[in-house]
Amino acid sequence: MPDIALPSDASALASAAFGARPGLFPLPLTGDPVASWHRAVALGGQGRYSAARAELTRLRRATGPGGALASLATSTEASLLRQLGRHREASVLDGRAVAALAGAPADCPWAVEAHCDALTGLAADALGCGRLRLAARLLDRCAARLDEAGGVHPEAFRRQRVRLHWVTAETALASGDFATARRHSAAAAAGAERSGSVRHLIKSDLLQAASWTGESDPTPARDLCLDVLDRSTAHGLVPLRWAASMLWDGLGGGDAARRVRDESAALIVRRGGRFATIRA
Question: What residue segments make up the domains of the chain, in order of their start?
């Protein structure tokens, strides 16, 4: 079960968003803009879509339309749509996230983070729309931005590098390049472990499991997938639980996998998530 919330402070929200306690709930309210963004990220990771959107609305009211935090809020909302398969709608928001950075200092760490989040978001949006070449170009732009900023802040941007590895692995999977997907998902897992982000490690391991489906023996992929399912359940990360159940179903999980998939999807809908409508 998710953790019980401790007294409100910014460190608790940071830990829920990108640290050791992604299942922390209920989450304390905050008037601090950075902590508010962390709260929205954590709510989204738990699949509490209505609550996450409400927090992002409050944050944008506080920040106004421009700047790094406004950009991060917008790309975070895009990620909520993308989790539900709504890539075209997400791409509009990710484009706005880039535009919100107009005039931001090039060497500002927050601006670099926000720019990279928007670029990897746009790449994932393009991938979801079947535009693999565009996704690759956007990933190259993100990598160049990180390389450029790395000399100024060499220890920063670990989260952005993990995200870059994620979308690179996903793009490789979509093109059938399992070796590249394995390499980048493993790098993402290593980066997530170093940063101490439980949620990021679980997602990275899910991608590793997917990358192993290219092997003749499905056992390693299935074992890691089930481990991801257990951890996402333990931490209350419903979107990752849903994604893991989908992979498990593809690996022969049968009725048990479909039961978890349907339970997770129903909970997502109850919490304000609206899945994309698939058109023939």
Answer: 11-63, 73-156, 179-275
